[in-house]
Write a structure and sequence with these properties.
alpha+beta, cca-adding enzyme, domain 2, eight-stranded antiparallel β-sheet, Beta Polymerase, domain 2, 57% helix
Length: 909
């Protein structure tokens, strides 16, 4: 059985700690009684010293392998000392008979892979039955460890117990594969080791492998089923250390080896493959050790708060526009991907050995599908080992064949591609045959996402399109993006394929219909693939991306008109979402600008679809029906303008037409003189912003006001994902702020607001409100009753909104979720509108923030007329269209600076 960790010459600090450990032996010599308190005190001191040594090694940049070896040797020495003390204590009280007991390390301790706060898993091994000797020694040792704060996992078993338990318990069987002798009866431990090799490791190997793979799949699903999660788990996440362990256990079972390096002699791996694997494992160990030390506890989750600290401790520096923590996480993802690929490679080679079918049957199940390629046992494999040497372009052909036949690559084919990666060079990229194959893959659509993911996993995609390769594993470190840039781009394509294939079962029909009308998909798919390649190269990544998209598409041999269309999409991929979600779509100038940029309906349709895919690919929960509805509305308005060719519509005729339709809707319900009064006093923007039915509802609410404090209407808009709340009241300073405060006090989110005031001083405000948890409509009648009652009390002066917010401010669920720390941004735009100053706010959310911001704007004597409020994942993107007290845009630079300063002050408070 393996014994201790690598026994290179121990560092001085380790030797000093071991010398101090000798003080424990003196406790026994000083008196005959078991001095538990004194032993615990000295053990605690030794453990503290051990922790100092590990921290010094980590800070000095020692390898993680060295650190873990030192950790193991120190723990071994402690257990050996405690064993001698406990055994001596027993023999001081009882007759010295032929008692047998061994301490065997298991799990990470058995593998010599202990992080600073890892649990210590030990097995007390005895030969027959638990007697007084076994009870006394194990109890003494465990009590000292527990009272010293060590997290111990322990079991007391015989060799037969271990073998019997392993037959039906996967965890027990796995634990036995990592056993290592520590102290006590060495022959007994060796007996266990022999039985493990004979009766555990070699038994039912295929069943063991299958169960370990199922266990691995469940673990991956639990931790996000992706390497590229925002806060990955370095141990249990995809590409984490547990994937390495799974591969290790499987190769131990199949090849009967102790260590990965033993596979070299068996010809299973090459030296380079092993070195690549070991390099990534070393990185993962180092990250895990750092996490434990920074957390001062067992912690394997790389949370945002630790990403910055690890990057600093690992001496990452800002590189161009990439922050240290972004560089660290990019390296983490690259290593995690390598761990997963190497582990998968080893497992596939091992399972190919265990699951190999009879040669005759294998020959019957293989068929040649193209020169140099065959399908063998349901996987694509090479039929000519030197194919890639003779024809490097066949590497791209392999992906087309896998797509055409719906199969995965055999492990041997992936190995050959990896070995020939350098053949994907400038000549390869410029080869017409290669580019035609790639474009055919895009056009086929069948299995397209799977093929592109495989192309990315094998690193072929980044080599073939180096512009894309520069964003592989590039972190988008914000509260919204769940995926790295490369995965986000591929998911955008996946969203479009799912949309066209009917995955969404009748949802998003406007988007689907436009997609199915396209004469070709490849322009759109290429735009998805390339829309973010400019990230990390400057502020205007869409412009950097456009230049690179032109280069890529020209290299692929696309016709000039297609190159121009892809470049247009990449350059403008943010525009439609920005206009729909952050600007006033009732501004004809905005719609006209989008129409001018698109120039034709096909460009508009492509941009519409790219916007859909881009938003949905950010994160699984980022899309809402509200956002989709706004995008559809902007699309239809712009499309109508393009169809008419009228970029300067007659607003007067538009308003009169709506008023005529409103009269028809409310005929007999509202007196004509009241309608005339409303039409005369309401601002034009009201009629330009709303449809006839919404206007009619507003008039009915306005007509009921008379001498009341306010009137209101609540309507659920399930399709748009929000509740419409219309409030009519005598206009007063800060009305929006008061309503925002009432909503904050009742834990309701305002997602948009349109503020209208008649010429005779009546406010008519329309709010879209959502539940902050479900991000859908607020359907709870009792909650609306409470909101209306609170609003009545505030408007009647029975309670100030400040007091209500302070008294009823609910606990924030947002603060429980950690998000990357970013300084708040407040930008003031006087170009976006002819009539308003636009304030854009990007900040971390907190309960009551909207009220605090709107209250500050009121104090600055600004009127709010339009707002867009987006809150997601603890972050807000708020937009306010404001005017000064004279009803004009704010032009004075000093006043603009004061607005920005005051809003930032409120956000930071």
């Amino acid at each position: 059985m393996p014994t201790d960790a690598r026994a290179d010459e121990a560092p001085l600090e380790e030797r000093e700690a071991l010398a101090e450990l000798a003080g424990l032996e003196e406790v026994r010599e000083e008196g005959s009684a078991w001095a538990h308190a004194d032993i615990v005190a000295r053990t605690k001191a030794f453990l503290a010293r051990k922790h100092e040594i590990l921290e010094h090694m980590q800070r000095d940049g020692d390898s993680s392998r060295s650190l873990m070896d030192v950790h193991t040797r120190l723990l071994d020495a402690l257990l050996q000392t405690l064993f001698r003390l406990a055994e001596a204590d027993f023999y001081a009280r009882y007759t010295h008979l032929d008692h047998r007991l061994a301490i065997v390390a298991q799990g990470g301790y058995g593998r010599c892979e202990m992080a600073p706060y890892s649990d210590v898993d030990i097995l007390f091994l005895h030969p027959y039955k638990v007697d007084s000797y076994v009870e006394s020694v194990t109890e003494r040792i465990l009590l000292v460890l527990w009272d010293s704060g060590v997290q111990v996992g322990s079991a007391v078993r015989t060799v037969a117990d271990c073998v019997r338990l392993s037959a039906n318990d996967l965890m027990a069987r796995t634990a036995l594969m990592d056993t290592r002798y520590v102290a006590g009866d060495r022959p007994l431990a060796d007996e266990l080791h022999a039985r493990i090799l004979r009766d555990v490791v070699g038994r039912n190997v295929q069943v063991f492998v299958r169960e370990k793979l199922r266990e691995s799949q469940r673990r991956h699903e639990k931790h996000g089923a992706s390497i590229f999660v925002l806060e990955p788990n370095v141990k249990d996440g995809l590409g984490g250390l547990r994937d390495f362990h799974t591969a290790l256990w499987i190769v131990k079972a199949v090849y009967k080896v102790e260590r990965l390096r033993d596979l070299l002699a068996k010809g299973v791996v090459t030296e380079k493959e092993l070195e690549d694997f070991e390099r990534s494992i070393e990185f993962m160990w180092r990250v895990r050790n750092e996490l434990h030390l920074l957390s001062d506890r067992k912690n394997d989750q790389i949370q945002f708060e630790y990403q910055e600290r690890i990057a600093a401790d690992f001496r990452y520096r800002t590189n161009g526009r990439q922050q240290p923590e972004e560089r660290f996480m990019q390296h983490y993802y690259l290593h995690a991907r390598n761990v997963l690929q190497c582990a998968t490679m080893l497992i596939e080679r091992a399972t190919a050995l265990t699951g190999r079918i009879r040669p005759m049957v294998a020959r019957l199940r293989q068929r040649v599908v193209a020169p140099g390629f065959k399908i063998y046992e349901g996987q694509l494999a090479l039929d000519a080992p030197d194919l890639f040497d003779q024809r490097p372009e066949a590497m791209m052909e392999a992906f087309e064949l896998a797509q055409k036949h719906g199969v995965e690559f055999a492990a041997s084919l992936r190995d050959r591609i990896r070995e020939h990666m350098r053949r994907i060079d400038r000549r390869f990229r410029n080869a017409p045959e290669v580019n035609q194959i790639f474009l055919r893959i895009l056009e086929r659509r069948k299995d397209l996402p799977r093929i592109l993911y495989r192309m990315n996993d094998t690193r072929v995609l980044g080599r073939y399109i180096p512009e894309f390769g520069r964003v592989v594993c590039k972190v988008q470190r914000d509260a919204f993006h769940v995926y790295t840039v490369d995965v986000h781009s591929l998911k955008a394509i996946e969203e479009l394929v799912n949309l066209e294939d009917g995955v969404y079962e009748g949802r998003y029909t406007t988007f689907r219909d436009q997609l199915r009308k396209l004469p070709t998909r490849r322009e759109l798919y290429l735009a998805c693939l390339l829309h973010d390649v400019g990230k990390g190269q400057g502020k205007d990544h869409h412009l950097h991306g456009k230049a690179q998209a032109i280069e890529v598409c020209s290299r692929m041999g696309l016709p000039p008109e297609e190159v121009d269309r892809v470049a247009f999409l990449v350059e403008n991929h943010l525009l439609m979402v920005h206009y729909a979600l952050r600007r006033d779509m009732n501004d004809f100038r905005l719609v006209a600008d989008l129409a001018h940029r698109c120039d034709d309906p096909q460009n508009l349709a492509l941009l519409f679809l790219l916007s859909f895919a881009d938003v949905r690919a950010v994160a699984p929960d980022i899309w809402t029906n509200w956002k989709g509805g706004l995008l559809e509305l902007l699309y239809h308005r712009t499309h109508d303008m393009l169809e008419r060719g009228d970029f300067e519509p007659d607003e007067t005729e538009h308003i009169l037409d709506k008023q005529r339709r409103v009269r028809e809707i409310v005929a007999g319900k509202i007196p004509e003189e009241q309608l005339d009064r409303f039409f005369k006093n309401m601002v034009n923007r009201f009629f330009l912003s709303l449809g006839p039915r919404r206007i009619s509802r507003c008039i009915r609410i306005w007509n009921k006001l008379e001498n009341k404090a306010f009137t209101y209407d609540v309507k659920q808009q399930h399709k748009s994902g929000a509740t419409t709340f219309i409030v009519c009241a005598p206009d007063s300073k800060g009305l929006f702020s008061k309503i925002a405060g009432v909503m904050a006090a009742n834990n309701a989110n305002i997602v948009s607001a349109s503020i209208f005031t008649t010429l005779d001083g009546t406010a008519l405000d329309i709010y879209q409100v959502s539940d902050p948890v479900t991000m859908g409509p607020i359907t709870d009648g009792a909650k609306w009753k409470a909101i209306v009652e609170d609003l009545r009390r505030v408007l009647m002066g029975e309670e100030s909104v400040e007091a209500l917010v302070a008294r009823r401010r609910p606990p924030s669920k947002l603060l429980a979720r950690r998000i990357p720390r970013r300084p708040p941004q407040v930008e003031i735009d006087n170009e976006a509108s002819d009539f308003y100053t636009v304030i854009d706010i990007d900040a971390q959310d907190r309960v009551g923030l909207l009220y605090d911001i709107t209250h500050a704007l009121v104090e600055l004597d600004l009127g709010i007329f339009i707002s867009r409020i987006m809150t997601r994942r603890g972050k807000v993107d708020d937009v306010f269209y404001v005017k000064n007290s004279e009803g004009r845009k704010i032009e004075d630079p000093e006043q603009l600076a004061e607005i920005r300063r005051r809003v930032l002050e409120v956000i930071r408070t």
